[in-house]
């Protein structure tokens, strides 16, 4: 059994990952802003009592460093996996220029999360580092956009332009924390120019075990358990959030999935 800490798991890929981890026998702590809403979540309530007993819900705001530190403090060197799946929603108040709500959520919260993870790791030097899984997106940067199916390029360039810029900064900071140059030169340059404060992840190189998961266009379909994964993936049209959760909960935890450590992996049907 692996002890897991999930940020941004009240919905979407994070919630699907939590359910898969639980169904595979792991212990899951969810940091959520609205405690009662998560406690009343129907999918959590539907779990069998023995599974539900392995769910722990901690209230906290990902924009508040003290609250993020407090949640990490619930673990005494025995944390095996940390998932970061925070994201915003597009606002169509101006349909010609959709905005992300809340703005820059990924880059702002990762700037709080990474120092908290670093402090946890440094406080437990004799313990193995937890696997850090970052839920990002396919189609980021010049390389990612060039590899998109032609039919998706206009959609990504319009609807996801602002969210992707936010995620590009987020990825840059994660690679910098690992002491790595981002494999996409555009993201490396864009992140270095636009990151709010790169000093928060210093000294570079402390992050040893991380995987960036880049889903294709997300849907609410059922979990099939059949999907493709690769660093570069042709015809990556879509994937269900449930299958992203399946990949996280069955392929990246418990000492497996080492082939993806330090890399970005695209997942698509």
Overview of this protein structure:
The protein is α/β, with parallel strands linked by helices and 269 residues long. It has helices at 12-23, 35-39, 42-45, 49-52, 65-72, 105-123, 141-146, 153-158, 161-177, 185-194, 241-251; strands spanning 3-7, 27-32, 55-59, 79-84, 89-91, 99-101, 131-135, 210-215, 217-219, 228-230, 238-240, 263-268. Helix 1 (12-23) packs across helix 11 and helix 5 (65-72) crosses helix 6 (105-123). The longest helix is centred in the middle third of the chain and has 19 residues, at 105-123. The radius of gyration is 17 Å and the shape is globular. The mean pLDDT is 93.
Give a quick set of tags describing it.
single chain; 269 residues; alpha/beta; two-stranded antiparallel ribbon; 11 helices; 12 strands
What's the number of helices?
Answer: 11
Share of helix, binned: 25-40%
DSSP, total strands: 12
Q: How far apart, in Å, are the first and last alpha carbons?
A: 29 Å
Give the strand order, joined by hyphens, for the main sheet.
Answer: 3-2-1-4-7-8-12-10
Strand content: 15-25%
Structural class based on helices, strands and sheet pairing: alpha/beta
Overall pLDDT, averaged? 93
Unreliable segments (pLDDT under 50, ≥5 consecutive)?
none
How many whole angstroms does the radius of gyration measure? 17 Å
Instruction: Describe the main β-sheet briefly.
Output: 8 strands, mixed
Please provide the ordered H/E string of secondary-structure elements.
EHEHHHEHEEEHEHHHHEEEEHE
Principal-axis shape: globular
């Amino acid at each position: 059994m692996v002890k897991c800490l999930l940020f941004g798991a009240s919905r979407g890929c994070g919630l699907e990952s939590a359910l898969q981890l639980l169904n595979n026998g792991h212990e899951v702590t969810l940091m959520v802003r609205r405690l009662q809403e998560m406690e009343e979540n129907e999918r959590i309530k539907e779990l069998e009592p023995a599974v539900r007993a392995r769910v722990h819900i901690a209230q906290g705001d990902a924009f508040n460093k003290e609250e993020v530190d407090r949640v990490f403090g619930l673990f005494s060197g025995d944390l095996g996996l940390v998932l970061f799946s925070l994201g915003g929603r597009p606002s169509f108040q101006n349909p010609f220029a959709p905005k992300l709500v809340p703005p820059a959520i990924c880059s702002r919260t990762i700037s709080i999360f990474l120092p908290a993870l670093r402090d946890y790791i440094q406080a437990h030097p004799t313990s193995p580092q937890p696997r850090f899984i970052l839920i990002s997106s396919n189609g980021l940067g010049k390389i990612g956009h060039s590899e998109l199916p032609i039919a998706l390029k206009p959609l990504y360039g319009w609807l996801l332009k602002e969210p992707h810029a936010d995620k590009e900064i987020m990825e840059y900071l994660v690679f910098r924390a690992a002491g790595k140059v981002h494999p996409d030169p555009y993201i490396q340059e864009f992140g270095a120019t636009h990151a709010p404060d790169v000093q928060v992840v210093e000294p570079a190189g402390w992050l040893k075990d991380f995987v960036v998961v880049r889903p294709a266009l997300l849907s609410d379909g059922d979990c099939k358990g059949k999907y493709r994964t690769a660093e570069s993936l042709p015809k990556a049209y879509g994937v269900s959030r449930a299958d992203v959760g399946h990949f996280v909960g069955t392929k990246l935890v418990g000492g497996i999935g080492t082939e993806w450590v330090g890399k970005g992996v695209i997942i698509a049907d």
